[in-house]
Amino acid sequence: QVPLVESGGGLVQTGDSLRLSCAASERTFSNYAISWFRQAPGKEREFVAWITTISTTSYSESVKGRFTISRDNAKNTVYLQMNSLKPEDTADYYCARHYRGNAYDLTNYDNWGQGTQVTVSS
Known about the structure:
Structural class: mainly beta
Number of strands: 11
Radius of gyration: 13 Å
Largest sheet: 7 strands, mixed
Shape: globular
Order of helices and strands: EEEEEEEEEEE
């Protein structure tokens, strides 16, 4: 399995927007649900958003209404549009392939990328 590749992170101010991308090189990409997780310094990695093969979505309560996950299977890419960013959104953001079980449990994922850093200044 080839790891996913995240991009689009950066340093922004409170209230700004960013769009993260998660790219796959495999043509089977469209056969799997994909999620975004994030990990802030000193904290555990946490679920952010999930998108199924038919673009059903789910979000953590902390980002619901501000973040939007989407996918373009023709480009083998999943996006995370992040609006109204807050300092508490500061973290490394990772995407991964959901291959079994509970979508909120990160042990049910593989193909983790290296992450992209998002820093929101106050």
